[in-house]
Amino acid sequence: MNTTINVKSLKKAEFIDITRDVRSAVMESGVKDGVCYVFVPHTTAAVTINEGADPAVLHDMVGAFDKIAPDEPFFKHAEGNSDAHVKSSMVGASLHVIISRGELVLGTWQAIYFCEFDGPRQRKVLVKTVEG
Ligand code: ZN
Predict the structure, then answer these.
(1) Domain extent at residue 43
(2) Tell me: the pLDDT tens digits for 1-10?
(3) In which element (H, E) is residue 127 found?
(4) What is the whole-number distance in angstroms between the Cα of residue 42 and the centre of ligand 1?
């Protein structure tokens, strides 16, 4: 089963917690034991798992990615968002989480984040659940 989660980013760069939406998709799928795939069909966004308790971590991550992959004078891409493309590839367009007893198996402090690197934009996240 496939589910599309619509995400509206409000900033140039931000991490948006989509754990609840992914949980809902898993519940609706009816899969009890299997794998949940989360995929972002964008080239300037990504998806990751990280701490869901302290919002300061997200602030620090955005700052760290800006430092690691800033806008560079040597970039040639006419759209002017090469830093976002670099960050997208660094983080990755997909992840997977094990489903057990109908629930996502996440660590106590883990949350699933949509990573915006070239917002604000309307975005999509695709979720697929597989039994097995
Ligand atoms: Zn571009």
Answers:
(1) 2-131
(2) 799 999 999 9
(3) strand 122-131
(4) 10
